[in-house]
Specification:
With 68 residues, this protein is an all-alpha fold. It is 81% helix and 0% strand. It is built from two helices and no strands. The longest helix has 42 residues. The protein is rod-shaped, with a radius of gyration of 27 Å. 0% of the residues are buried. The mean pLDDT is 83.
Length: 68
Amino acid sequence: MLWILQNYVITLLRDKGGANAVEYALIMALVAVFIIAGVLAMSGAIGTLFNSMASCLGDAPACNTGTF
């Protein structure tokens, strides 16, 4: 019975599939952090753009199209 457990543990230690999965998970987490940081950094500029577009739609003759 002990040798079955030993063989199972040795097989688990030799298996590299788990390490690859962890590496891919870390890469995906890093990409997600960069995406979130980019969206947060650009949120102010995008909000300003949409606000100026909304004001132009409300008063088209007085609209300054140079902001787009």
